[in-house]
Design a protein that fits this description.
By secondary structure, the chain is α/β, with parallel strands linked by helices. The chain contains nine helices and eight strands.
């Protein structure tokens, strides 16, 4: 498996510094948070996109994916949601990234079946467009669809290779789902896995990998036994927790921890 980290952990850090950090700490790739407050988002032009892609390529670091905020199960018209996804897919295509992250964002006040149907319809449309650019749109296990079983209700009806899943290990754990059950549900669709650690269900402040309660060793073991060889991406939510320790000083030990888990599971 290859290792990456998300720029959610280094809010606003300029691209050259992100690339240097990844290369110096031994990470193979980076997930770029695509938000207007970040250096890379759908609003940047062709020249800036080429510059970003070139900076990563020069140091041999991959752009794993573009983490967007489109919500495919949210109420409202399809057009605005699909336009957001198209812009994210074009950005990913221009950067040479393989994946675009989207959220479910379903309304808890609506029947579950309605949200599932809306999400499946939008994911199917987005997948057709993404496939043309060699990109996969991944539904993250999050909010209204936080478990693998939840995501499967959307992805099963879509049935398109360019529509997949992003397994966030915190949310499936918070949803009470065992790693083996998550993998069983998502393995046909799995794009990559977001790892992280927290103190408890009540305190989700990000911690160094291995310092909290999330079943990272079990997740890695399940993936290894299943023959999965994709990406593990550390999503350290520094942007939402300003008091959390700075990520750069944790990246080296975090990579070593993941490498140890991978060796133990081999």
């Amino acid at each position: 498996m290859k290792l990456a980290f998300s720029t959610l952990g280094v809010p606003g850090l300029p691209v050259p510094d992100v690339v240097r950090l990844a290369a110096s700490c031994g990470y193979h790739g980076v997930e770029l948070r695509a938000h207007p407050e970040e250096p890379v988002h759908p609003g940047i032009g062709p020249a800036e996109r080429a510059e970003v892609a070139g900076a990563f390529s020069a140091d041999g670091v991959e752009i794993l994916g573009v983490a967007g905020y489109a919500r495919v199960a949210a109420p409202g018209d399809d057009d605005a949601v699909l336009q957001d996804i198209r812009e994210l897919v074009r950005l990913a295509g221009d950067l040479g990234a393989s994946f675009v992250r989207v959220f479910p964002g379903g309304d808890p006040g609506r029947p579950r079946e309605e949200g599932d149907a809306v999400a499946a319809r939008r994911m199917a449309t987005a997948a057709e467009y993404a496939a043309e650019l060699g990109v996969r749109v991944l539904l993250e296990t999050h909010d209204s669809h936080r478990t693998g079983a939840d995501a499967l209700r959307v992805l099963g009806p879509v049935g398109h290779r360019a529509a997949g899943a992003l397994w966030d290990v915190m949310h499936t754990w918070l949803g009470g789902e065992q790693p083996s059950d998550t993998f069983a549900a998502l393995s046909p669709y799995l794009g990559y896995v977001q790892v992280k650690d927290i103190a408890s269900a009540e305190d989700t402040t990000p911690l160094p990998l291995g310092a909290g309660v999330l079943p990272l060793a079990e997740c890695v073991d399940v993936l290894s036994r299943g023959g999965w060889d994709g990406w593990l991406c550390w999503e350290y939510e520094k942007r939402w927790y300003e008091a959390a320790a700075p990520l750069p000083e944790l990246l080296g030990p975090g990579r070593e921890h993941l490498a140890r888990l991978l060796n133990e599971s081999a």
